[in-house]
Every structure is written in structure tokens, then in C-alpha cells.
Amino acid sequence: MYVESLRGRDIKVYLFGKQIQNPVDHAIIRPSINALKATYDLAIEDPDLATAWSPLINERVNRFLHIVESPEDLVIKNRMQRRLGQITGTCFQRCAGLDTISVLHSITYDIDQKHGTVYHQRYLNFLKQAQQHNLIIGAGMTDPKGDRSKRPSEQSDPDLFLHVIKRTKKGIYIKGAKAHMTGGLNSHWICVMPTMNLSEKDKDYAVVGMIPAHAVGITHIYGRQSCDLRALEEGDIDKGNAKFGGQETLVIFDNVFIPWDHVFMDGETEFAQDMVSRFTSYHRASYVCKTGLGDVIIGAAATIADYNGAEKASHIKDKLVEMTHLNETIYSSGIASSYEAKKLPSGIYKNDEMLANICKHNVTRFPYEISRLAQDLAGGLMVTLPSEQDFKHEITGPLLEKYLQGKASVPVEHRARILRLIENMTLGRNAVGYLTESLHGAGSPQAQRIQITRAMRVEEKKDFAKRIAGIQID
Ligand code: SF4
Ligand code: FE
Fold first, then answer.
1. What pLDDT score was predicted for residue 81?
2. Measured by CB atoms within 10 angstroms of the end CB, which terminus of the chain is less buried, N or C?
3. What residues have a C-beta under 5 A from ligand 2, the ion?
4. How much is the mean pLDDT over the chain?
5. 182 touches ligand 1 (CB under 6 Å)
6. 227 is catalytic
7. Which pLDDT value is given to residue 473?
8. Which atom of ligand 1 is nearest to 92's Cα?
9. Which of 51, 248, 331, 423 is catalytic?
10. Residue 90 CB less than 6 A away from ligand 1
11. CA distance 280 to 355
């Protein structure tokens, strides 16, 4: 069982200035584990959605470990992501690992074709194990990057990008860090990979390898989230979403060993750019996950309108329509990108790059507007509501019950719970997942604009216009 598999590991984790001996039962960490566990539970509850047949091991496997065999596979993946967003209301942390597996299929194949290496077979061997044991793979992509005007090999501290520091007969040793690692310590394995295009001089930075998340030399430093200390409070109302949360860690790799069997790139700098752009093609369409969160927040906004007795007001209905329009626009660009997937030489399908970037670019904007509208419908009480303890207090409790009533038929506690959920998703812990991760995860907005610029074929479009306007084209 997944949660049990995380116990008893000698994993080094720091949170609030202390080393955490038992992360699994830590009140701040556990909701993030619950969110990942939902990916296992859904596979049992809805196998058509969350599992697939793997020809690699001739068994059904969790869809988060499945090699994409068709555009339809990608569309079902998107539906599964939306569903998991609806269930958890947060980041369930497993998609970056899936998108890593997907990109490695074609990249290892392409490198082997050019260099006669054996990366693809190593990758398939690893993947079989991962499928058999239903493992979580964390994606270690984002280096700290230091001075953005300098290449990896030009940084004043060479470790600001993760790199190979030693090679032996048995394997390689790496040093550096990966930032913002989604589900870092909830993963069984971490795949490190380059974060940007590399030049010949950056050879030691062109490294891809799989490492156990608890390997010797790895330290996880837990990222704080807004209102995270509420997890330590008694009661569940003020938490807004008491069961589920996201997780990002800064992962330090100090002289970490990777045996050759788990090395999938070492020095092939010319493939780094392709690796990043193929990864983003998959991952930026994965951000349809946020439409599941959007469904939750639209539901919360509609519920609070009911509780306030405002559900029939035409402007309320119109705001719900607006929220839905924005949410479905994200979804449509994501699944369009999946339907337009094309087969690569290795046999795997890859999302349409332009539409994946459009999907993610929509995600950098629309959840903010959806959140604004949810806060509009929630009213100011969302941020002036007294604490759960005051509701339970013998003097203040009855006063709050009397004066914070909306519709008489609705318990005041229900009203408080929905307001806290909207607070959680737009200001609190899961605003990390719904807002800031939507902005910066899978690349900040400018990264999409660069790729849109590259792919927008404006010269061809000028010709369309000129032809119709009767301007001669040379
Ligand atoms: Fe998956 Fe979305 Fe979390 Fe990325 S942000 S891991 S796509 S749930
Ligand atoms: Fe992410």
C-alpha cells in the first residue's frame, strides 16, 4: 500500500528548522501524501479511467505509469487529471513523473539512434519495475539557476545547475539541487534531468538519471505554504480542505551515486533542448488538472450563493457562467492538444506543442479570474470569519450562530466550511496549487510566450493575408 511504502525509509527531511523523523504522520505533510494516494485509489474505483494495459509487462498498470500509445490515451489522461482535481482540490503530484516517463521514451530512443548508446533499453528495464511495483516518480527538472545571464558552466558556483562530478566503472556521482520539486519526498524515485538547452561546454550538466528519493546524499527541505500552520490546529473547519494538500521541496544532491543502469543521458548536450520542449508539450497539457480544481471552486461559489439566498440573482448566475467559460476554455485547449498528438519515431505519441502551450498559458491567467469571482460571490465574511474555536466557545459560539446565519435552513457551520474552502483555494494552502503553481508550474508565462512565438508561423500567415489582399508574393 502506498502510504505504508513511504514508512521506514531513511529519508532526510527538514521542516521548520527540524529534521523530521516520521514525515508520513506529520500533520503538515500528511495531506500531500493523501493527495498522491488518491491516484492509487482512483485506479481501483475507476480502472477504465485510471489504469491502462501495458504491453511491457502484460498487465494493467496505473495510468500514471503508462506509455502513451495513441491520442486517445492522452485524452483519457486529461480526463483522469480533471477527475483527480475534483477529488482533491489540490495538486496530486503525480503528473510530472508521468510526463518524465513519456519524454524519456523518445529521447533515450533518439540518443541511441545517433550515438549507439543503450539508454532506451535501460529506460524500459526501469519502467517495467516501476509498473510492476506501481511506483511514484518525481520530476527533478528545475535547477536553482543562479545568475540567469550565465550558462550552467559559467556560474560562480558550479552547483547551481545539477551536474556530474565523477564517473567510475559502476556509475556517476552528481551534485547540485532541484527546486520546487512537486511531491519530492512523497516519491519513491526522482528523475533528474536538464532544465534548459545546453552548449558543448555544459557537457557535465547534460545528465538524466533515476535515484531513490531516500538515497545517501539527498536532503529534502520542505517548502512552506500559506497558512500551513493551520494543519497543526485542532478541528478541521478552518483548514478549508483538511484532507488534501500539495507539496514542493528543495532537493539537495550532494555527491549522489547513480549506477549506469539508471543513467539515461550523460553528456549528449544537443538533446537537452528537445528534452525540455517535449517534456513541456506533455506537461503543459497536464495542467488541465486545474480544471478539476476549477470545478470545485465553481461548486463552492454556487453553494455559498445558495446559502446566502442569492442563487436566483441574475448577476450571480452570470458570474457562474463566466467562471465555467474560463474553466472549460482551459480544458478545451488541453484536450485539443491531446487529440492532435503525433507519433514519434520511438513509437510514443506526443501532445501538440502549440496547443499545450496555449493550455498552460490559459492556466496562468484564468484561475486568477475564477478566484476573483469566487471571492466576489463569497463576500467579505470569507476573510473576517472568526475561528472554529470561537464557534465552539460557550459565550461567542451562540452569538456567532445567531449573527452569522444566512438562509435559516442552512447550518451556520456549513456556511463557514464553504467559506473556508474558498479561502483555502484562493488565499490559503491550496492557493499554492490553484494560483501560484498555475502561474509558474511547468514554466512561467514568458516560457510559453517564447514557445508560442517559435511555433506561430507568422510568415505563413502574412502570405495568407497578402494573397487574399491581392499582393504579389515572390
Ligand atoms: Fe499534476 Fe497539476 Fe500537480 Fe502538475 S500541478 S503534478 S499537472 S496535479
Ligand atoms: Fe506542477
1. 98
2. C
3. 182, 441
4. 97
5. yes
6. no
7. 84
8. 8
9. 248
10. no
11. 11
- Quick one: cell of 95? 503528473
Q: Give the model's pLDDT for residue 333.
A: 98
Q: Which grid coordinates are listed for 380?
A: 467579505
Instruction: Give the sign of the dihedral formed by CA 41, CA 27, CA 221, CA 195.
Output: positive
| pLDDT tens digits for range 391-442 | 999 999 999 999 999 999 999 999 999 999 999 999 999 999 999 999 999 9
User: Which three cell numbers mark 279?
Assistant: 517534456
What's the rounded mean pLDDT across residues 43-48? Answer: 98
pLDDT at residue 5 tops 90: yes
Instruction: Report the alpha-carbon distance of residue 474 to residue 463 in Å, rounded.
Output: 10
For ligand 1, atom 3, which residue shows the shortest CA distance? 91
The secondary structure of the chain, three-state, reads CHHHHCCCCCCCEEECCEECCCHHHCCCCHHHHHHHHHHHHHHHHCHHHHEEEECCCCEEEEHHHCCCCCHHHHHHHHHHHHHHHHHHCCCCCCHHHHHHHHHHHHHHHHHHHHHCCCHHHHHHHHHHHHHHHCCCEEEECCCCCCCCCCCHHHCCCHHHCCEEEEECCCEEEEEEEEEEEECHHHCCEEEECCCCCCCHHHHHHCEEEEEECCCCCEEEEECCCCCHHHHHCCCCCCCCCCCCCCCEEEEEEEEEEEEHHHEEEECCHHHHHHHHHHHHHHHHHHCCHHHHHHHHHHHHHHHHHHHHCCCCCHHHHHHHHHHHHHHHHHHHHHHHHHHCCEECCCCCEECCHHHHHHHHHHHCCHHHHHHHHHHHHHCCHHHHCCCHHHHHCCCHHHHHHHHCCCCCCCCHHHHHHHHHHHHHHHCCCCHHHHHHHHHHCCCCHHHHHHHHHHHCCHHHHHHHHHHHHCCCCC
Task: Report the 10 Å Cβ neighbour count for 365.
Answer: 14
pLDDT tens-digit profile of 96-118?
999 999 999 999 999 999 999 99
Cα of 441 to ligand 2 centre, how many Å? 5
Which one is the CATH code of 284-455: 1.10.150.120, 3.30.470.30, 1.20.58.1370, 1.20.140.10?
1.20.140.10
State which amino acid sits at residue 201. K
CA distance 191 to 136: 11
Q: Produce one character per residue of 247-283: b if its CB has 16 or more CB atoms within 10 Å, e if not.
A: bbbbbbbeebbbeeebbbbbbbbebbeebbbbbbbbb
* Bridge partners for 52 per DSSP: 61
Q: What is the mean pLDDT of residues 18-46?
A: 98
What span, in angstroms and rounded, lies between the C-alpha atoms of 118 and 126? Answer: 13
Q: Which residue, by CA, sits nearest to atom 6 of ligand 1?
A: 93
Domains of the chain: which residue ranges?
Answer: 284-455
